[in-house]
């Protein structure tokens, strides 16, 4: 697709997540990065973004907002931290840009691309919940299509090396937002989320184990629904794998693992891989609709 027909996007935050986003945007047939915004010109992320040829600014959200019209920016990825997201939305709300929140702030409309991705076509402020939410909710939603759970539990385990400072500072928000989303997408009255950060010398892959208490689950139906849900995620997250599934008595338990496939982040950082892949998928869905409207006009 010619550059002028791609949707212009900006990345707010120049950490590891932001840099991996740049790689994914570069590979997208629908998106083009037109600005990377941070708050410190000396950060390694901004330097690397500039070395890759992207326009950068150390003026943060203020500079990004001022640049939206001049740079033709239609989508902003917030890859900063949950504490700052409310301010970012306050600046961007008066614009026409779509704000995609990669932090667990619980402020935008919660989106899981394979479940309610169509909402990106009408909303202007969407939240991607958390890496655990993006991993678990497609499976939880599939189970809930068969039986509404009485209780949902999600246990995420990730390598310490893939949990940066923002991730550690936002653990409380991560747990709260993922629990809220688990209830929202399944109808379960109760949900519990646990997080393990492993310091193992050989970093483990990102792994999410989910448990649902349901009445009289039918194993074959559950397996069919869950396998189809996992396949839909694998279309844009190749490293997503359903590694275990059991349905018996009143309990369904499943485990998924996510490995990173890009060159920017290590294989064990599946937590970063899935949240970024979900962000790109949501933005491409939004871009496809707007590009089609532009072509018709």
CATH superfamily of the largest domain: NAD(P)-binding Rossmann-like Domain
CATH architecture of the largest domain: 3-Layer(aba) Sandwich
* Low-pLDDT regions: none
Roughly how much helix do the residues carry, as a percent range? 40-55%
Top-tier CATH class of the largest domain: Alpha Beta
Major sheet attributes: 7 strands, parallel
**How many alpha or pi helices?**
10
Number of domains: 2
Helices, strands, pairings?
Blueprint (H helix, E strand, L loop, with lengths): L6 E6 L3 H12 L3 E7 L6 H8 L4 E2 L2 H12 L1 E6 L3 H11 L5 E4 L7 E2 L2 H4 L8 E3 L3 H16 L4 E9 L5 H5 L1 H16 L3 E9 L7 E8 L5 H16 L5 E9 L2 E8 L11 H27 L1
Parallel strand pairs: 1-2, 1-4, 2-3, 4-5, 5-7, 6-7, 8-9
Antiparallel strand pairs: 8-10, 10-12, 11-12
Helix pairs in contact: 1-10, 6-8, 6-9, 6-10
Quick summary of this structure?
By secondary structure, the chain is α/β, with parallel strands linked by helices.
Structure, described:
The protein has 297 residues and is α/β, with parallel strands linked by helices. The chain has two domains: 3-129 and 274-296, Rossmann fold; 131-268, 2-Layer Sandwich (Dihydrodipicolinate Reductase, domain 2), CATH 3.30.360. Helices cover 43% and strands 25% of the residues. A seven-stranded parallel sheet has the order 3-2-1-4-5-7-6, with helices on both faces. Helix 6 runs parallel beside helix 8 (171-186), helix 6 packs antiparallel against helix 9 (219-234) and helix 6 (131-146) crosses helix 10. The longest helix is centred in the C-terminal third of the chain and has 27 residues, at 270-296. It is globular. The model has no long low-confidence stretch (mean pLDDT 92).
């Amino acid at each position: 697709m010619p550059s002028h027909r791609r949707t212009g996007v900006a990345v707010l935050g120049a950490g590891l997540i932001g840099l991996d986003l740049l790689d994914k945007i570069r590979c997208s047939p629908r998106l083009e990065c037109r600005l990377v915004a941070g708050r410190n010109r000396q950060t390694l992320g901004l330097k690397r973004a500039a070395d890759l040829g992207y326009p950068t600014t150390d003026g943060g959200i203020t500079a990004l907002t001022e640049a939206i019209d001049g740079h033709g920016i239609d989508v902003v990825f917030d890859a900063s931290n949950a504490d700052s997201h409310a301010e970012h939305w306050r600046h961007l709300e008066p614009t026409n840009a779509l704000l995609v929140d990669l932090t667990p702030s619980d402020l935008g409309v919660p989106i899981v691309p394979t479940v309610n991705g169509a909402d990106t076509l009408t909303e202007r402020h969407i939240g991607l919940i958390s890496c655990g939410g993006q991993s678990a909710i497609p499976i939880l939603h599939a189970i809930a299509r068969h039986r509404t759970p009485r209780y949902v539990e999600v246990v995420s385990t990730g390598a310490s090396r893939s949990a940066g400072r923002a991730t550690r500072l936002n653990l409380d928000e991560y747990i709260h937002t993922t629990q809220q989303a688990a209830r929202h997408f399944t109808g379960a009255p109760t949900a519990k989320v646990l997080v393990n950060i492993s310091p193992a010398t050989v970093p483990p892959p990102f792994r999410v184990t989910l448990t649902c208490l349901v009445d009289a689950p039918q194993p074959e139906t559950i397996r069919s629904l869950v396998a189809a849900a996992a396949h839909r995620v694998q279309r844009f997250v190749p490293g997503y794998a359903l590694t275990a599934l059991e349905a018996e008595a009143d309990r369904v338990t499943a485990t998924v693992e996510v490995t990173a496939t890009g060159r920017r982040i290590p294989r064990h950082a599946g937590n970063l891989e899935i949240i970024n892949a979900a962000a790109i998928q949501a933005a491409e869905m939004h871009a496809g609709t707007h590009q089609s409207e532009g072509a018709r006009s």
